[in-house]
Amino acid sequence: METPGSQSSLHRANLERVVRAVRLAGSLTQAEIARTTGLSAATVSNIVRELKDNGTVEVTPTSSGGRRARSVSLSGDAGIVIGVDFGHTHLRVAIGNLAHQVLAEESEPLDVDASAAQGFDRAEHLVNRLIDATGVDRAKITGVGLGVPGPIDVESGTLGSTSILPGWAGTRPAEELRHRLHVPVHVDNDANLGALGELVWGSGRGVRDLAYIKVASGVGAGLVIDGTIYRGPGGTAGEIGHITLDESGPVCRCGNRGCLETFAAARYVLPLLQPSHGGDLTLEGVVRLARDGDPGCRRVISDVGRHIGRGVANLCNLLNPSRVVLGGDLAEAGELVLGPIRESVGRYAIPSAARQLSVLPGALGGRAEVLGALALALNEMGDSTLLDGTLHTAAPAFT
After folding, report:
1. Phi-psi region at 38: left, alpha or beta (left = phi > 0; alpha = psi -120 to 50)
2. Element (H, E) at 311
3. Which residues contact 4 (CB under 8 A, 6 or more apart)?
């Protein structure tokens, strides 16, 4: 047993700080590790050498600022994480390692009217199939990240009301999947995971504060503040779709009038075009037609962008993020939607907040949520567990 404040306990704490920094970033140079952890360059060098000798990290030559450097990442065989994403019409699963490498990924259609039990059975089957296909050691699975399209109660883990999977309200998704896979499962809503995915792998890399806006059958936002997902005490932070734009507007599913969602979500927007474009029109189809020059679709996309921009302006005034990432099918519209968003932000946001903001399309497309689920599993795993599984030496020669 280590005595608090002793040489060995300080060394252990420094090991965990380095491992955590590398685990969350995927890979860092030793100089970046020193800046992130506050440890001296010499201490970082010694710790990296020890972790490399014990098989916890891998070190590869790289360059930084034109100079030679060494990139440090967790060993590819140090552990395995799994991401599961339930969407409106799909189930997507990915398997990755602690070095942030995606080893396998697959999706399949999901009937929105399927029961929760059927959905989790499908997820269990798909996870097991990918595990068998990749040949990963099940004993090395450290956790599962799970994304669902609805609010999760922070205390109970219960899924709240969701119009996307209506038969799932009141279930405990993490508990359901944990019983099937027998490993720790961490759950969050899809907008938060989209934000986490873009933060780690996509358009949010390099920033500490961002908002990920997802427009689909509803409108939601994942908020990252100082590098961490902000959920609020009840887990409902980011409901940007229910900002009121017009008190006399259409009645929203939440019971209020004129919410942003009633001006931007697919369920409200598509009926505007279906009389002229057919009843089978989807948001993806609207974007495709708009890019091909269809005037009606271009007008609707532009209007949606302006409405979203008003919601983004409110976020700027309250939280002052440095970046907004637009995800989902709408992001494929590019400047047709991003231009109007920026226009509204410039009109309604405080000028200083608007000047600091960049608005970008998501880089991950439909993969953002499942990659965010992988990132969630990586974030929630304990560094002590990882070190205990790989380190067998005790007496430190440095601090």
Report:
1. left
2. helix 295-319
3. none
